[in-house]
Amino acid sequence: MFSQHAVSEASHPSSLSHRSRSCGLRWGVAGVLLAAILTTCSIATDEPAPPPDALTIDQAAQIALANNRNLKIVALSLDSSKEKLAAEKTRRLPSFNTYIFGSQVLTPFSFTVQAGQFGTYPATGPIPATNTNITTPAQFTAYIFGTASQPLLTLYKMNIHIHGKQLSVEQAAQKVREERISIVDDVRQAYYSIVEIQNAIEATAAKEHVVTSGTNMIKNGQQVRVIP
């Protein structure tokens, strides 16, 4: 049993080609809803079965939106476009780089400079004056430097490129909205088709009950009055 409520999302006219693509979805939803009706409808017995919970049109639309593959694909495309746009915007900001280099000799080395090895001069005498020992210790040495860069000449081109990315995001968002509206429209049409079928089934069952009751009354010898 179905109750009819208005869907929160308004539908809009779609093109013929889009209708042909969504025909399969519409009939698929109709088949599922019809199977649900036929399953829940039981043959009259001594003890009638409790009525099933009503599936509203809003609930049917929510189920379709939550499980539609095409809608998930366009939603992922929208998220990807937003991530690319955010990445492109960071290229306009200044960038900072830091470099650190470290070194250390494996073993210390030492050597001796002999007296007068660099020459002997009348004014100063021998250079060096005495034997000199020179030793290099095995200690760690580090070098740190950084750079900062900011794009200036290419900012105009970068802004144009980012504007194009923004248009791509808006286009992807529009596709998501169109897909949602199309899905809700298909669900509405399938839902009302099922309601029409259910009303026809109930009308046929009522006529059959009237005919059966009249037949039983005739068999029991009762007079049946037909109201035109």
Strand order of the largest sheet: 1-6
Give the class from helix and strand content and strand pairing: alpha+beta
Note the total helix count: 4
**Percentage beta strand:** 5-15%
Helix-strand pattern: HHHEEEEEEH
Helix content: 40-55%
Task: Describe what you observe in this structure.
The chain has 228 residues and is of the alpha+beta class. Helix content is 54%, strand content 14%. The protein folds into two domains: 16-93 and 152-219, no CATH class; 95-149. The protein has four helices and six strands; from the N terminus they run H-H-H-E-E-E-E-E-E-H. The strands form three sheets. Strands 1-6 form a two-stranded antiparallel ribbon. It has a two-stranded antiparallel ribbon with strand order 2-5. Strands 3-4 form a two-stranded antiparallel sheet. The longest helix is centred in the last third of the chain and has 65 residues, at 155-219.
Primary descriptors:
alpha+beta; two-stranded antiparallel sheet; 6 strands; 2 domains; 4 helices; 54% helix
In short:
This protein is of the alpha+beta class and 228 residues long. The protein contains 4 helices and 6 strands.
Question: In terms of topology, how is this protein built?
Answer:
Layout: H1 16-40, H2 57-66, H3 69-90, E1 95-103, E2 109-113, E3 120-121, E4 125-126, E5 132-136, E6 141-149, H4 155-219
Antiparallel strand pairs: 1-6, 2-5, 3-4
Helix pairs in contact: 1-4, 2-4, 3-4
